[in-house]
Specification:
Elements: H1 9-12, E1 20-25, E2 28-33, H2 37-45, E3 48-50, E4 62-64, H3 69-75, E5 78-79, H4 92-98, H5 101-114, H6 119-130
Antiparallel strand pairs: 1-2, 2-5, 3-4
Length: 144
């Protein structure tokens, strides 16, 4: 291994150049980019929903939810040409209702590829979601 390729702490703490890709939609185009590590963590956490628990002394439990899966991913990856995100978490519901499934899928496909979200990852989310189908509500009040 060449010494010139060794990344020091200072180099590792410099923000990476995030990959950005143009995505053609029906009315124009958008850019989709890689997430930072903290953005991906927040996106993954947004797939969790606290289970209702009547026992105050019991440990808090979470379940995986696919609610707004695509819109959540689109919100944390759609950006301008400089990589600045276009949306905030509060925009998830509105975006999901406004955008066609075809356009959303184009964005999600690129976002998944750029952010190393594999089919195995998606299957794991789905498996965890189906493990406890007790609460299948799709309330518009939950914003993760």
């Amino acid at each position: 291994m060449e010494e010139s390729n060794f990344l020091t702490k200072d180099l590792l703490l410099q923000r990476d150049d995030l990959k950005i890709e143009k995505v053609e939609l029906t009315r124009g185009y958008v850019f989709v980019r890689e997430m930072t590590g903290s953005e991906k963590d927040r996106w993954e956490q947004s797939m969790l929903k606290q289970k209702p628990n009547g026992n105050k002394n019991a440990a808090v439990e979470y379940e995986t939810t696919l609610e707004d899966f695509r819109a959540k991913l689109a919100v944390v990856t759609m950006c301008d040409a400089d990589g600045n995100l276009l949306f905030e978490a509060k925009d998830i519901k509105a975006l999901n209702k406004a955008m066609s499934a075809t356009n959303m899928e184009k964005i999600v496909e690129v976002a998944q590829r750029l952010n190393a979200i594999s089919q195995k990852d998606k299957d794991e989310i789905l498996k965890n979601s189906e493990a406890d189908p007790e609460d299948s509500s799709s309330s518009d009040s939950a914003e993760n």
